[in-house]
Description:
By secondary structure, the chain is an alpha+beta fold. Helix 2 runs antiparallel to helix 3.
Amino acid sequence: MGLLTNRLCLVLLLIMVVYVGVTTTEAKEDPELRQCKHQCRHQRQFDESQKLGCERSCEEYIEEKERIRKWREQRDELGRDETDNNPYVFQEEQFRTHFSTQQGSLRVLPKFTQRSQLFKGIQNFRVLLFQANPHTFILPNHWDADAIFFVAQGRGTVSLVFTDRRESFSIEQGHVMVIPAGVTAYLINEDNDEKLVLAKLVNPVSNPGKFVTFFGPGGRNPESFFNAFSPEVLEAAFKTSSARLERIFSQQREGVIIRASEEQIRALTHKEGSHSVFGSKSSKDFSPVHLLRQRPTASNEFGKLFEIDISDNKVLQDLGIGVSFANISQGSMNTPFYNSRATKVAIVLNGKGQFEMACPHVSKSDHHHHQHRNPHHDSGRSQQGEERETPIHYEKISSELRPGTVFVVPPGHPFVTIASQNNNLEVICFEINAENNQKFPLAGQKNILRNIESEAKELAFATSADEVDSVFENQDEFFFFRGPRQWRQRGVAVV
Ligand SMILES: [Cu+2]
């Protein structure tokens, strides 16, 4: 046994040296990585593929740590660096594996405040991507966090368990649903071919920005929390023998997401209706909302916007979370606009495109100004000089968008998104602090500049109101427009 493990470690070490050598030239072998992998190898309840999955998570974790360390180093040396200038966009590679089995995975974006202190206002929120293979069952569990999810792909059944009842719901692509903190939930992907993919926003209720999962039903993997209690305590609690308890809490070894048979799936899904309650009637309605079947709040040939009106939805209203979905036609864009109160956390689901935002918080043009304004340095030197002795400047934040990109738009910040020429751009947005939020368009119909009187326009722009109007009243579409390339090419195409 000892010899075998030693050999395994040796082999692993060799693989690791090669791996490290290939991926990062100057990174030395991290003792934490070795220890992490070593622990994976020694999880007796893991089979070979689980061990490999575990080791992969170690690597991802260490890579992320390394990336952040380098970024911090650079930032401290120069006072800034490239990512520093754009802390608002996260690419898909930045998701870390929370758990991963052969049947699916849960990936989580690092804490926002790990990236920048600009995110203090949303530091408690985390973004997650979950996926499960066809014909799988996700074991019952509860979280110390409220979770809001959007079904990005596939269909399934979610069951919520309360003290007096169970509520089961069919979900499919386009549904939005809340799983409240502490409520035990389980999930089935009943589809034969399609993966079930959920985009989630979680709001931990105890430890800011940190959440944990609790498995009661389970065994060795996932470990059941019942296993933490003394046998005599469980014997007394369940009025049974410890042999029986030992049996029941030791058998599950397959992990969080397991394959289920055709018959089991059939028994667990309720085809007769989308909503079935067993037990007493619910006080709160947790039914999923079909976001994509709402009447769009903006719709033309350039795009469609779907929004949940949270004043109609008690569950979302209590959380203060709005959810919207934008489908921008290929080559088109949305109006530049800003949110009055909400911070938008957007996840690109399909297509490619471009994001631009005006931000007064970051600057790359002038190092000195940067030091005064940069809130990343929220201690020490940024104290001197209460912000601006220099005129206010808005830096252009811009980024490519592709599936898995997450971008954050703080309140008040004007921004646009533009779809590429080849595909529609589909974006799901969670709006934090959405109560009483308003979207203020800056071009096209409902453009707020149209409501300013002539004298105010003349004073503000130092030119004639006619000249101002000739700019701000040209665009007559609402919310979605022809994009920059299409607009430039219109002469060729149309005239
Ligand atoms: Cu800003």
